Amino acid sequence: MYDPTVARLTYRALLGRRRALILGALPLLLIVISVAVRGLTGADDQTASDVLGGFALATMVPIIGVIAGTGAIGPEIDDGSVVYLLSKPLKRPVIIFTKLIVAIAVTMVFSAVPTMIAGLVLNGNGQQIAVAYTIAALVASIAYSALFLLLGTVSRHAVVLGLVYALVWEALFGSLVPGARTLSVQQWSLAVAHKVAEGELVTSDVGLPTATVLLVAVTVLATWYAGRKLRSLTLAGEE
Amino acid sequence: MAVEHPLAPAGDQTRIHDIGYRGYDGPRLGRAYARRSLYSQSLRGAYGLGRSVKSKVLPMLLLAVMCVPAAIMVAVAVTTKAHELPLAHAYTRWAIVMQAVISLYVASQAPQSVSRDLRFKTVPLYFSRPIETADYVLAKFAALASALFVLTGAPLIVMYLGSLLAKMGFAHQTGQFAQGLVSVALLSLLFAGVGLVIAAVTPRRGFGIAAVIAVLTISYGAVSTLQAIAHVQGSDGAVPWIGLFSPVTLIDGVQSALLGGDSSFPDGIVPSHGQGAVYVLLTLGLVAACYALLVRRYKKVGL
């Protein structure tokens, strides 16, 4: 189910010079902010939870997920070079699965690791906050990668659609309409984090069983459908 | 039309065949015309006009998202016979409240405007026409800024017309409307500049979109987090200075300090007039810097 060559090519496409720059800039900003906050306020659990929840999990993880998830397949479909990959004797689901693994790995490295570091800087893992948000980032990485990889195969405007989901649906609707929070990767991963964290600083609107079921279902379904979609891919020219 | 072939002198074996190409001696429309065409084509393209149906969907949807809530607000104000729009300082605040929508629009349309020219290497073709680097940059910059001005100005017009229909006081509303227009004009210039500079670096459309949105929203997220923390720590004096570091808060500072609006800073802290002047200077400086960077970028493009 995993093809090393496809994985190597995907890694190179994802971590090419400029992509690696923007992927590295966001985590760096998070760490700089946490150092600044620690310097300004000292260790405070509520502040740590606000920064990690508001900035790391709500903004940084989805954007890195969009870049890695759609970047794993989108540009290839966009410039048509995907036909060379598809003409190789590889099953399409294998291609998708390999790219998914790569996207998950990249998202995890660039989102969960800096979240952990920022958490340690902010309050030295008091009340397990750093670990809880790291686990949330890890879980969210998997779901976001699968979701945005599917978007990359479905639409040529995958990046815009992914950002609309991450910024408009999760951030805007999620804060206005309570029902929208049930269908949000962010809340599902927070439910997992809630289980880990001590105390009531990390909360979620979704129960743990529901969240787990939805996370697994979304990841599996998105991967399966992306594989199907790649079997009957039509290459569209530039509009 | 018959073309006269000059007879070659007999015995001469080498000659250039005249295969009937004719020179153009009609009117030359010139540089200003080319610049105007590029501007109008880019402006139409920013709303998907003259492009496929699919590419009309997103810009029109975002325009609707900007205008429909304004229309609903006005309708509520008219039916309840209010003397003031429900949202205080609605004209200047609207663009700040709707900043996510505006950011998405810039992110989707700035790469659309310049990245494809870079990717398909058509930029040298533009410069084989009588336009100069500065003309191309000016046309693209002006087109995106105008498109943004339409996007941010349309809801203001909706509100203004609605408030006039509701007889809310002509002079008061007109003054606020004018202040709102100034604020969104500044915002359009700033956002267009930032978006184009980022988009002109990459030939990949998808990557350009992600980069623009990252710069606009992440800087806003970072700045508002720091402002909130500074406020909680009791150092309110630092809040306006932190606001200088992201495009959205920059415009927010200008409109609250000098154009009589409320700010979205924590606890509604409003920058002083002196700080407002710094905000305006920095905004204009950034616009000029974006223009200079673009000209520099296109000096050596594709050549």
Automatic annotation (TrEMBL), chain A:
GO cellular component term of the entry, any: plasma membrane
Q: Which residues cross the membrane?
A: 20-40, 52-73, 94-117, 129-151, 158-180, 206-226
Any idea which GO molecular function terms this record carries? Answer: ABC-type transporter activity
Kindly give the Pfam families that the UniProt entry links to this protein: ABC2_membrane_2
Which of UniProt's keywords are assigned here?
Membrane, Transmembrane, Transmembrane helix
**Protein name stated in the entry:** ABC transporter permease
Q: Which organism is it from?
A: Streptomyces lucensis JCM 4490
UniProtKB/TrEMBL annotation, chain B:
Indicate yes or no for the key word Transmembrane: yes
TM annotation in the entry: 57-78, 141-165, 177-201, 207-226, 278-295
Domain of life the protein comes from: Bacteria
Q: What are the entry keywords?
A: Membrane, Transmembrane, Transmembrane helix
Its recorded name reads Membrane protein
**Per the UniProt entry, what species is this protein from, by scientific name?**
Streptomyces lucensis JCM 4490
